[in-house]
Specification:
By secondary structure, the protein is mainly α. It folds into two domains: about 5-60, Orthogonal Bundle (Arc Repressor Mutant, subunit A); about 65-195, Tetracycline Repressor, domain 2. Helix content is about 80%, strand content about 0%.
Length: about 200
Amino acid sequence: MNSAPSSIRTQTRAVMRSLLAQTAMQLFSEKGFDETTVDEVAVAAGVSRRTLFNYFRTKEDLALSGLNEQGEAIAARLAARPATEDAWASLRQAFLVLDEMAATPEHRLEIVTMLFDNDSLRAGHAEKQARWTDLLAPLIEPRLAESASREYNARVIASVAITCLQMANEEWLRRNGSTALFDLYDAAIAAVRSSN
């Protein structure tokens, strides 16, 4: 009986976090991250500053909150891939969920620009993406041959794939979105795998 109220509270909290983050991202896009205050985000969202800080510790957390959702969506997509599929191919297909989540290429370019042009956001972005390794490695491990180092190998593959995705995003931004992100990702993976 107690699980229903807890579940409703959890869902309500997740919806509220999402709405606050969307409001913040809209303001960040319009005014810039550094130029937007937490108070402005709270006012735009119709909540108090205190309420905002009940959901997010910092302004950076507001800007980076979508990375947690992205990591979970990638993990869910990876878990749904055929068990016999090559780990690299499965990761590539799982990462495609990012294209489905993104709005317009212009909006994505604004967000990626904001994330990479601000030192604290860039560091936070890399840190949150590194946590994806913990989500993805256990899903990669069963796809690898039995060995004493299988768990380690799965973490390495997850980390390398995430780094290649990061590099692809940086190059995509440098090219002002003129090259498809996953063409750049494929090139990064090919560079790593051909050097072995």
